[in-house]
Amino acid sequence: MAGAAILGRLSWHVGRVVALRDETATARTITFEVATWPGHVAGQRVDLRVTAADGYSAVREYSIASAPRADGRIEFSIERLPNGEVSPYLTQDLAIGDLVELRGPIGGWFVWHERQAEPIQLVAGGSGIVPLMAMIRSRVATRSAAPFRLLYSVRNPDNVWYRDELQALSADGIGVTFVFTRTSPPTWPRPPGRIDAAALSEASWSSVLSPTCYVCGPTSFVECAAGLLSALGHSPDRIRTERFGPTGDQPRH
After folding, report:
1. Taking the model in full, what pTM does it have?
2. What is the pLDDT confidence band of residue 170, given thresholds at 50, 70 and 90?
3. 10 Å Cβ neighbour count for 104?
4. Containing domain of residue 26, as a range?
5. How many C-beta neighbours within 10 Å does residue 197 have?
6. Is 2 contained in some domain?
């Protein structure tokens, strides 16, 4: 059942790689076809298990990047970590036709449902865009009228994931604001720097509208963004966060 969060009730599924697409120099989107996939809700994640020829296996948890689909296909966008055990294989060696085991979907709190009609504020740091992109894509796929805004913080323009898709969304009425922390494009109106109260206030819904806020990224980014949202008057029970662990491989609440 989609939305299940108890690992004891979840089964492993076999996914076959059917498409690969580079997002940046270090990030790749992988599309799996999973014949037995039970469905998911935007914002959920899975355990992904890879097994080497000698039988050694490793499990990592990744957020789902795609909206729910009826054809059993799901996407993951994964960043290659310099000292990662699994991400280098997934982003460099995995090939079309390869098989990988997946268990999920996992999570029932950091999710967006089609029935939600309130304004939605998304705040992403780096690869934290992944589950938020699933929410945006679900909103588009279901033709929801819920107002969406995204504030996306990245180091420089070359680190933007889903660049063309986000540009198209901006033209389609979904507010997208970038904050570049290291290098910004020429003539960019804001100098490079981390998100602050001014940037968040300009790019986000007013707290008087009672939006639901989803914040995802590295722990320090999430703590900063959640604190800024609270300072701007957003109720803590309207701020949902998901943080990456110290390895960057596994998201956590």
Report:
1. 0.91
2. confident
3. 26
4. 7-106
5. 12
6. no
